[in-house]
Amino acid sequence: MPLRKLSYSVLLALAVVSGLALFFVAQLRFNYNFNDFYPAGDPDLDYYQQYSARFGNDNDYVLLGLEAPAGQTVFEPRFLTRVDSLTRFIQRRRHVTQVSSPTTATNPVVEGLGVFNIPYLRPQEPSRRAQDSALVYRTPGLVGNLISKDARAVTILFQTSPNLSKPPGDSLLAAVRTELARQNFPESQYHMAGKMVAQSVFVDRLQMELMVFMSLSVVLVTGLLWLTFRTWWGVVLPLVVVLGAILWGLGLMSACGVSIDLMTALLPVMLFVVGMSDTIHIITRYVTELGYGASKKDSLLIALKESGFGSGLSALTTSIGFFTLMTSTIRPIYNFGLFTGISVLLTFALSFTLLPAMLLLLRKPQLRVPREQGHSWDGVLGNLFRRVLARRQWVVAISALLLIGSVASASRIRINSALLDDLSKNDPVKLDFQFFERQFAGVRPVELDLKPAAGRSIYDLAVLRETEEIETYLTKQFGLNFVASPVTLVKSVRKALNGGLLSEYRLPDSEAELRRITSKIKLFRKKPEFKALVLPDGTEGRLTGRMPDVGSIRADKLNASFRVFLRDNIDPNVLQTRLTGSANLIDKNNENLTLNMITGMTIDIVMVTLIVLALFRSLRMTLVVLIPNLVPILIVAGVMGLAGVSMKVSTSIIFTIAFGIAVDDTIHFISKLKLTLLKEPNLFKAVRHTYLLAGKAVIVTSLILVGGFSTLIFSSFDGTFYVGLLIGLTLLFGVVAELTLLPILILAFYRHKPKEIRQPVPALGG
Predict the structure, then answer these.
(1) Where are the domains positioned within the chain?
(2) Alpha-carbon distances of 245 from 18, 249, 343, 344, rounded to whole Å
(3) Positive/negative CA dihedral, 78, 79, 82, 84
(4) pLDDT tens-place string over residues 554-571
């Protein structure tokens, strides 16, 4: 038969494409690159990349914190001996470029033509313990940086090769942990922090959570499909279609060289639950026509004809919702929006090719509930329809009150993020980072580029004095607990030239003294800290520091005050400065979040408006469609404000995605209403008939969507948790609005007579 041959041809062609997709999926890799979250194409990013090429990245390091045994201080000789052994072990590791440790910190003294580096700590000489510890606490830059204020912990900081990828990074961390165990450091007494540590943990968790969420989603959706259709094919066929679309989407992503990261890891789960909509609408309509006694072929043609228009529109609106995320300057969000949007369209294509082909090749199903016995869905939906319209004043009043309260609460939402926002507060990795916040300088880097004015050098006394003034402000007003700059180098050399006395750790008093100091700087230029702070020709310098991660709101205020200080107190004819660094770029992302979200939502709403206008050519119907879908968005925004959930990179995508998905059911409803109006001129009867016809699919798809997104609440990443929770709530409120507000608004906007609302609803087809 032609249709059967066509079905086999379709299946063969799709199998070939799926095989190609599988080939690319096998090459897909997981990755978490911190740098990907910088604002792509931003001038500040270009500036930082050039800056880091000269001085190195400000986050290519690992902090290793070691706690002394209970009842001891870090100055115990046995503890320091273990610290020194561990330090030397790390120094020998591949990809380690520099190590700073309490046991390698030295007080340089220049005598004659040579430099003698006198160690601050000498564990092999216990008699000097009191003298050494007293010197450490008097020396700037040691306490709070390498040694905690309470002398209960030390830090070993080791720089790594630039942008070290996960495999060598994992090997390095594993080697360090093995050595820690060999040195008898229990896990409770050491802490690790840094980009490489977060990268390792994030990628491992992404892999685990992707499998867990997909498994939960498959179990949940399978159960709901079985409860809905009570047939094996009603479960298997939608799963085949959606899993095929996921395979194609991931294959395309891999072919384009995109890895799975914190955002694109959501693609399979999101597509799995979103992609079910088209298949459920088709199968529901197919089963309904079979119930009327139509043949398999006729039932399928009717289902495709009536579902095609609505499914096509809903696929378009959903994909637009994802495509609008491409307005983001953050590459992972851009990729997530692009490939998820494409995958939604692929799901639509498979729903109208693969699904019909499989249905045609199957035998005509034997329905479990014969048509003449009636369907329980008709009675439930008919009763709900009657009750909603009979109490329409209450529905509208409650909706209005919720809307007013939500708008007021939503005004409390703030854009705020921290460096490890996506980890829950009790996560071991976050607790380790907090250890360094509590005991040491912190983990948030601060970078300031220093450029002397034309004709000057970074070693000019006027330039150094301006730099010192900046240092003073940053330590006293900004909150830096550790700072290093060319001033640090000059002060250190001056101290070294004067016998290593702490009283000599200051800037020179005259140009003549400065010239004597700078002439000796060549003795220190090979030291890594010198190369990291000043260019060899003295034309540019770097001020670097660390502070606690205060969050983007506080950081923005600090940065604004700092810029005012620089403008009012630093002479640009002497020194020019520019705030840069990885933390500064992450902060800049937050400045763009609101604009990106508003832009995405605006594009989404405009596109949906144009689609509805083209469909109904009615401005009133456009409002009817928008109101039930914007109300849930505003209610969830109110929930965010009430719960104190901040807007950040991960949560900024919620509203755009939720609106694009939520409008699907409305599109299906009004497209069926348009078809019904061709046969039924009475608007009330047409709305009632559509309500009964589309209600089951609307409820089932919404349950699958809410359930699917709810699986994300088990994530250890806060961002993923909130995406699942808030989108799930939006879709839950959306189906309630769909079944209550939508029919009321349609009839109210068209001024239907209220007495007809109270008429009993006859059985469908009766």
Answers:
(1) 2-33+200-366+378-416+587-758, 60-193, 428-550
(2) 9, 6, 6, 8
(3) negative
(4) 888 898 999 999 999 999
